[in-house]
Amino acid sequence: MEKLPKLTIPVIIGIIILIIIVAKSSITIKAGEAGVLYETFGNGVVTDEPPLGEGFHIIAPWNDVIEYEVRQQELFEKMKVLSSNGLEIQIDASAWYQPVYSDLGKLHQERGENYLERVIQPAIRSAARSVVGRYTPEQLYSSKRDAIQDEIFEETKKILEKQYVQLNEILVRDVTLPNTIKDAIERKLRQEQESLEYEFRLVTAEKEAQKVRIEAQGKADANKILSASLTDKILQDKGIDATLELAKSPNAKVVVVGSGESGLPLILGNN
């Protein structure tokens, strides 16, 4: 086997070294992520420039890049907190969050890669304790779930305002009360519902009775007015009009004038 020329060996070595340097100096940022540059012989974490975005990058081989996921992420939390009267309540909540892209360098420098445990979880738990402590178990069980969800979100957002983290939403998925308290609340709600139904039936019956009284009074008033207006003269005129209408009938009849009651004509048929 022929030996390689002496000049070829250094070239090969140089190519190998170049490949190693390129491999050490290149980095590919995956989709949904960004990189924080750390300059070993500079000022450390670069905070005054945007982070490295998705794609291929060449950096000095002595520097380092720390990758962060910058997409929205979800945190599930089960928290035991106290209500306004000191009873233990379990809250199941979800938080949607993501790091502030432009402040990624500061987040890494001041909070670190485990910022979720250092910043977000303590903020949510503190806000949940503060908010739930304002309400009774009955309020938490029935009408105030949406309210506490909004309040926990607003208070957590304030805590995270200067922590280089963006909080998008907090969802309260479940509020669990002690079984004895839950049963007592359900009994009370059933009793209140039954009481409301009974009151509704009473009101409906009273309105129906009032309607009947009004209708009866109206009829009585109408009869009273009608009786007062029907004089003997009017009745005679009405009787005469009716007699005339009957007299126009084609059937055979005999009309005896002045033979009926009140002097009205008396009509006799052929039967």
Descriptive account of the structure:
By secondary structure, this protein is an alpha+beta fold. 48% of the residues lie in helices and 24% in strands. It folds into 4 domains: 62 residues, no CATH class; 105 residues, Band 7 domain (Tetrahydropterin Synthase, Chain A); 42 residues; 38 residues, no CATH class. It has a 3-stranded antiparallel β-sheet. Helix 3 crosses helix 5. The longest helix has 51 residues. The N and C termini lie far apart (154 Å). The model has no long low-confidence stretch (mean pLDDT 79).
What is the domain total for the residues? Answer: 4
CATH topology of the largest domain: Tetrahydropterin Synthase, Chain A
> What Rg do the Cα atoms give?
47 Å
The helical percent reads 40-55%
Taken as a percent bin, the fraction of beta residues is 15-25%
Major sheet size, sense and barrel closure: 3 strands, antiparallel
Mean pLDDT: 79
- Structural class by secondary-structure content: alpha+beta
Brief summary of the model shown:
This protein is 48% helix and 24% strand.
Walk me through the topology.
Blueprint: H1 8-25, E1 26-29, E2 33-39, E3 44-45, E4 55-58, E5 64-69, E6 73-82, E7 88-99, H2 104-110, H3 115-132, H4 137-141, H5 145-159, E8 165-176, H6 179-229, H7 232-247, E9 253-256, E10 266-269
Antiparallel strand pairs: 1-4, 2-3, 2-5, 6-7, 7-8, 9-10
Helix pairs in contact: 3-5
